[in-house]
Known about the structure:
Blueprint: H1 25-44, H2 47-57, H3 72-81, H4 89-133, H5 145-155, H6 179-184, H7 186-203, H8 217-230
Helix pairs in contact: 1-4, 4-5, 4-8, 5-8, 7-8
Amino acid sequence: MSHEHDARxxxxxxxxxxxxxxxxxxxxxxxxxxxxxxxxxxxxxPRAAMLEIYLQTAFIPQRYDFGIAGQAGPYLWSPVTYxxxxxxxxxxxxxxxxxxxxxxxxxxxxxxxRFLVFxxxxxxxxxxxxxxxxxxxxSVMVGASGVVSALMGAAARFxxxxxxxxxxxxxxxxxxxxxxxxxRNRTVFGFLVVWFGIxxxxxxxxxxxxxxxxxxxxxxxxGFLFGFLTFSLFDPIEPH
Length: 240
């Protein structure tokens, strides 16, 4: 028996796999900006210039114990610019991992413009709570942890779905849960308990092996609450 082959038939196809690093452009861009800044600060600039950049762009509560006169630039921009700086490559790598995980889901959901606005406002919210606990002192805060925490809080409103499931490629299509519905969702509630538990341990001095710097748990909490409580303002998808 003969078998006729249609030239248009491509034959058996291998299964297609989603790329491991399939990140939205805005998330990839923010990662590249943070890496470029870290490389410049660590390797390309003289120490004096590096220290001056940290002084001008890191969030320092003592700055707000004085008037804006003479420090208008850092006074206004440091509540955002600190989120692009890091205390070293380990700090950057940790924040980059969580940014890729949660930022990608949120960015697919809300688009790049809303994502950048969300970044801007969540950085300010994170800095504000840190300032409330450290008013007037000389603490220096850098890092995207507060923004990443806000993205986690935002993702908790939709990414786990009604049944608690999570698919990285489909999570952004889930319906948004109300705050009450989120708290009633077992997976979301468990996530909240673990997340706040870890940060409360940091609040009482548990360092998680990070000996060279304190964990800015206040910024984490401020960011998370911002993302969790205000996400509906950024979400273009109306709940069904």
